[in-house]
Structure formats: structure tokens, C-alpha cells
Write a structure and sequence with these properties.
The protein is an all-alpha fold. About 55% of the residues lie in helices and about 0% in strands. The chain is built from 5 helices and no strands. Helix 2 crosses helix 5 (about 90-100). It is elongated. The protein binds heme C.
């Protein structure tokens, strides 16, 4: 009985991890997401946050739109302003976009 529970917990852990981090080419982008975006946006079934759920954001926006939103969020929705994302190098921005585009 206890063993079943442990197996179930391990399964759930691995399963939710794969939602966040589907393959190693997007790991860096995920880490950037975690520090820069995760405070306001969720990805899966975690609690409701101020920003939208970005689980399928790669389906909703092209990379071009995503970069525009990150650089000047008010173009998307000026009523619930998302602050511009600062302190990201071009390389980090690319990694982040690669990760976001993979969220389909
Ligand atoms: C301080 C909070 C905050 C942070 C940090 C933040 N956002 Fe947002 N974001 C928002 C809010 C608020 C909106 C507007 C949501 C709405 O209209 O309901 C938004 C909107 C968006 C949208 C357009 C809405 C959608 O779901 O298509 C995208 C894309 C987005 N954010 C991506 C990001 C990314 C990527 C980062 C990190 C680099 C980030 N945000 C960081 C608060 C934040």
C-alpha cells in the first residue's frame, strides 16, 4: 500500500517536471523563465497568478510576438500592465524564446 503511494508520487513528480522542462535544449530557457517570469505566470496546474497561464504560449504567439511582448508588454494589454523585462542579455533572451516557443 505504502509502496504504491510512493510510486504514484514519483510518477507525479516526473510527470510534472516534464511539463516544465521538455528537453535539454530548452533547459537554460526554462531556468531564465523561472527567475524572470514564474513569479507572475504559471505553467501548469499551480495556483492562479497575476499573469496568464503560459503553458501553451508557443501555440498562441509567434516568436516575433513573444519578443515584442517581453520588450514592451504594454503592446499586449495596457490595462494589466506587465513590467518590461530587464537585465536579460541577447543570448538569454534567445534561450527564453526557444523555451517559450516549445510550450505548445
Ligand atoms: C510582475 C509580473 C509579471 C512578470 C514578472 C512577467 N509578466 Fe507577463 N504578464 C503579466 C501580466 C499582468 C500580463 C497581462 C495578463 C492579462 O492580460 O491577463 C502579462 C502578459 C504576458 C503575455 C501575454 C499574455 C498571454 O498569455 O499571451 C506574455 C506572452 C507574457 N506576459 C510573457 C512573460 C514572460 C516571458 C515573462 C518573463 C520574461 C513575463 N511575462 C514576466 C505579468 C508579468
Amino acid at each position: 500500500m505504502k509502496l504504491k503511494l510512493i510510486v504514484l508520487l514519483i510518477y507525479l513528480f516526473i510527470n510534472s517536471y516534464s511539463v516544465y522542462c521538455s528537453d535539454s535544449s530548452t533547459t537554460k530557457g526554462f531556468l531564465i523563465f523561472k527567475t524572470k517570469c514564474f513569479g507572475c505566470h504559471s505553467l501548469g496546474f499551480d495556483r492562479k497568478k497575476e499573469g496568464t497561464n503560459l503553458r501553451h504560449v508557443g501555440k498562441r504567439h509567434s516568436e516575433k510576438t513573444l519578443v515584442a511582448i517581453i520588450r514592451s508588454p504594454h503592446i499586449f494589454d495596457s490595462s494589466k500592465a506587465m513590467p518590461p523585462v530587464t537585465g536579460m542579455s541577447d543570448k538569454e533572451e534567445k534561450e527564453l524564446l526557444k523555451y517559450l516557443s516549445s510550450l505548445k
